[in-house]
Amino acid sequence: QVQLVESGGGLVQPGGSLSLACVASVSTFNMYHMSWHRQAPGKERELVASITTNGGRINYADSVKGRFTISRDNAKNSVYLQMNSLKPEDTAVYYCRAVASWSVVDYWGKGTLVTVSA
Description:
Strand content: over 45%
Largest sheet: 7 strands, mixed
Radius of gyration: 14 Å
Number of helices: 0
Shape: globular
Order of helices and strands: EEEEEEEEEEE
Number of strands: 11
Helix content: under 10%
């Protein structure tokens, strides 16, 4: 069982920045592909960004390209999401997800709320 704990959410003004972090309670963190997802009120959960086990492949949703940066530190069992130039439409609960590289088993964090508002 892998536990994921997100942090860093909060209230920010449009144009501002926030940095999210997700820490995994697993010794084999470097064997998990990681991703950030978000769910806005009344909408389906969507993929924001993903990163492979060694960071060799990174993907972003079109809506966040050029504004968000995903990264990971395998020594710290952590994945990060740097969010710049935030917009009100970025308001959502942000979730961290881990997918085992050898199977389809996945784990989700409980989420952290990001609110972009003046």
